[in-house]
Amino acid sequence: MRYTSLLFVTTIFAAAAAAQPNMPAPATVTQQYSFVPVGIVAGQTLRVNLANLAGGSSVCMASISFVNSDGTTIQTQSVTANAGQTVSYSVQTGNINGSPASAEVRGTVTLTHLISIPPFPIPGGVSPTPVCAPLMSAEIVDGNGQTALVLTNPASSGITPVLVSTPPSPAQ
Prior knowledge:
The protein is mostly beta strands. It has one helix spanning 2-19; strands at 27-34, 38-41, 45-52, 59-68, 73-82, 86-92, 102-115, 134-141, 147-152, 155-163. 10% of the residues lie in helices and 49% in strands. The two termini are 34 Å apart. Mean pLDDT is 78; it is low at 1-20 and 161-169.
């Protein structure tokens, strides 16, 4: 009797696992960050750094931009930071139209990464997609390569989730 009950319970769990609907595809999440504006002068560099502190196969895909005081984008670069990597992108006053002697510039980061829905382990061995764990900074570097200022904690304008595919409908 004991073995029959164990077999019955095992069969119920196996049937429940098999009856689970297909897991939804990962969603793309976009987060936008902006550092405070800073003044740079000829010979200085404003550099934005993006580190991915996650492990495994996590990937942070981002667009790093520099915006001048009137809101015009000076330059933009797409970057990818794999797990454990740090990437950087820089601007100098010579990259700004008219090559001014000084300029007010702010760095922005638009970060895109995949997350699983739901974002936690699923019974049956299905794991969520590794999440990007970004850490950002901006720094002003002088003409001698010395860091003069470091900015951390950029302001976030929020998270915009975008579904890659339509989640499956509930089981009938």
